[in-house]
Amino acid sequence: MTTDTEMWAPDEVAADAGPRPPERPRDVEAERVLVATAMQQPNVVDELGAEGFDPADITTDAYRWAWWAVEELRTHFRDGELKYLAVHRQLEAWHADGRMPTRVPSLEHLMDLSNQAHPGAAAWYAERVARKAVAARMVALGYDAILKGSSPAFDEDDVAAVQADLDGVIRTSDDADLSTIGDLISDSLVRAVTPPTREERVPTGFVDLDSLFSGGFAPGQFVVIGARPAMGKTTLAQDFARGAAIAAKIPTLIESLEMAKPELSDRILCAEARIPHHHLKQGMVSDVDMARAARRAPVIAEAPLYINDGSLLSLPLLRGRVRNLVRTAGLRLVIVDYLQLMQAPKAESRQQAVAELSRGLKLLARDFNITVVVLCQLNRGPEHRTEKKPMVSDLRESGAIEQDADIVILLHREDAYEKESPRAGEADLIVGKHRGGPTATITAAFQGHFARFCDMAAT
Description:
Elements: H1 4-7, H2 28-40, H3 43-50, H4 61-73, H5 83-96, H6 107-114, H7 122-150, H8 157-166, H9 181-192, H10 207-212, E1 222-227, H11 233-247, E2 252-256, H12 261-273, H13 277-282, H14 287-301, E3 305-308, H15 315-329, E4 333-337, H16 350-368, E5 371-377, H17 399-404, E6 407-412, E7 426-434, E8 440-447, E9 452-455
Parallel strand pairs: 1-5, 1-6, 2-3, 2-4, 4-5
Antiparallel strand pairs: 6-7, 7-8, 8-9
Helix pairs in contact: 2-4, 2-7, 4-5, 5-6, 7-8, 8-15, 11-12, 12-14, 15-16
């Protein structure tokens, strides 16, 4: 009889190939009993599959292929049929047409295997196999980290990449979150008469925007702020950060790829204390303004606002930083300034690379249940139109940004094109996309000398 060792032989590792990979954790006994049970009770394949079991976790080649054979034949088995005979024929057919690269186990081996079934215990043995598979992925990730860390080409992004891979060590089944409408409808009725609480939303700092968004940004939302250069995208994003971190004490992260930390700090102080920005830059702030700044400084200092101004920002690096701040600080809002300056993944075209960035940021919001606000440049479309107002289709370089975004806010100021405009000092926050909600144009006041936007009523 062929032994398990003969059925599963790991590849030889060359002596000069570097550190030898550690032995893969496996539970051969559990695999044997699990596959034997599946051969006797083929419905086990569907039952365990619905619970998320992945046959790829079976490490013994013979057992894994036997499982796949049962999966292939389960609807064709007849009552009383010796399943191991049918499995043997299926494996021989696969081997003959080149689909099965390993040796076909003998009929005697399969017969002996079939006799080791434990009806009623399949779920327990599947859990044992899955647990060892998690351990194996953990070991493989550790080995990969050793190789990366000992490589002469080591880069700090490798750390973030390993952290991102860690998310995949424990797999989640696509079917694990399946629900019937009957399970969900009662919660819908509750939400119909329960307005969102402040704890569930991230306030924007603008009364009309908060009203439009039912109290502010929701967890898991991917928000895009689009505008042409010099419209005030960064200023608006800082206002969102101030509304969340300073006013509502919500942990917030600003990833600035354009402005340095000192400049961001200066602008936030000016906006909070109503200090003319040009006076601060010249070091000529009046005593009255300094007194007001001294009163606001402690409040600003206590805000859970984190700022990073690294010039290189990749998705894995951002994901690692967010994971750490979610765990240690309860992070709820991330602002990236701006998308086109992020380090794009390798792709066939710039459009595809931007699409991957957009999708990655959307998944970041969903996976960590936070709000991600990303600034984005618009193309020259508005400048070629008479009215100059931007549209969602003006988002630069990729239609995927519009597709992925839950909310798109387009920033427009008429006085940026016409200095003598009767709307000087006003700004339009055009909500061009709002998934699941209404769109509108909100008018705000632009106080550039204070480096801020604010509600019109506040002026």
